[in-house]
């Protein structure tokens, strides 16, 4: 039973309720010497408290995505996919990277796989949603644009499936004609459990390489995608929003556009989004969306980036009327952001590309 599964939450809640009911029923029936009765009743109280704490912990974890699985919780996940393991049974690292990955059906129409980062020497979860058109016969030779969607911290790619129905939001935009069909890719931004601001940090983690090379290479080898940069965009929330701005500005050869929804302070960190906008002037378009009621990502953050950007960089600022730094607010931002990003991406089309194993 998965750590984040609904049935596990229901089971824990049932156990907590049973502990309280059991304590009420057994409290007056405890027999024996006074020390035994006291110990038994203290034990019942502790059991009730422990089960209640577990329910709260699992609920909070499901809301914010601190841990995505039992392996993640126990420290067995993301142990460095690009490194060999010592020992006689260890398999040697292939001399040629193999980006072919088996994506399995996951939840809400998404597919999931553990992806090896050949360039970044790490690994992490990647969750993918393909539009309904992808599987239709008339689109069998069509390649689609890709949008990398980055989570916040704390959080994981799985947080999007609990915090909002991201695939449904995209599908609604496509159905209403406001967005072209596109593939959504949700990678972890902490493959080594280190927040680097999506940068390559020597001795810690090569997150930028993971997000701009390993993940795109894997997706391009397993799905029918359009080439970068015109066929690729990046967007995110909170820390993921900061990352989206940073990656779009620093890697215009990878992404034609970026959307930062309620981003972290864009002036912080080495090679921050503000620094990149001021000094590099890439040919890229960037959306920064905010709420005046969000103290963690006020509209002035968008002003800071826009004020230093120069052509050919284009920065668009958007505000929603209200909302704090939470899933409800981000859920209201995504429809507009998807529409904006889609208008700047190349539309799906049949195009001869290099041979690929993508189905």
Describe the secondary-structure layout.
Blueprint: H1 6-26, H2 34-64, H3 70-74, E1 104-105, E2 110-117, E3 122-129, E4 146-150, H4 159-163, H5 166-175, E5 183-187, E6 200-201, E7 205-206, H6 207-222, E8 232-237, H7 239-250, E9 257-261, H8 273-279, E10 285-290, H9 300-308, E11 314-319, H10 327-344
Parallel strand pairs: 4-5, 4-8, 8-9, 9-10, 10-11
Antiparallel strand pairs: 1-2, 2-3, 3-5, 6-7
Helix pairs in contact: 1-2, 5-10, 8-9
Structure at a glance:
The protein is of the alpha/beta class and 359 residues long. Helices cover 37% and strands 15% of the residues.
Task: Quickly list its features.
alpha/beta, 359 residues, two-stranded antiparallel sheet
Number of extended strands = 11
Counting H and I runs of at least 4 residues, what is the number of helices?
10
Rg, Å, rounded: 23 Å
Main beta sheet: 9 strands, mixed
Structural class: alpha/beta
End-to-end distance = 31 Å
Characterize the overall form: globular
Low-confidence stretches: 77-92
State which percent range the strand residues make up: 15-25%
User: Strands of the biggest beta sheet: in what spatial order?
Assistant: 1-2-3-5-4-8-9-10-11
User: What number is the mean pLDDT?
Assistant: 89
Order of H and E elements: HHHEEEEHHEEEHEHEHEHEH
Protein described:
By secondary structure, the chain is α/β, with parallel strands linked by helices. It has helices at residues 6-26, 34-64, 70-74, 159-163, 166-175, 207-222, 239-250, 273-279, 300-308, 327-344, and strands at 104-105, 110-117, 122-129, 146-150, 183-187, 200-201, 205-206, 232-237, 257-261, 285-290, 314-319. The protein contains 10 helices and 11 strands. The chain has a 9-stranded mixed sheet with strand order 1-2-3-5-4-8-9-10-11, sandwiched between helices. Strands 6-7 form a two-stranded antiparallel ribbon.
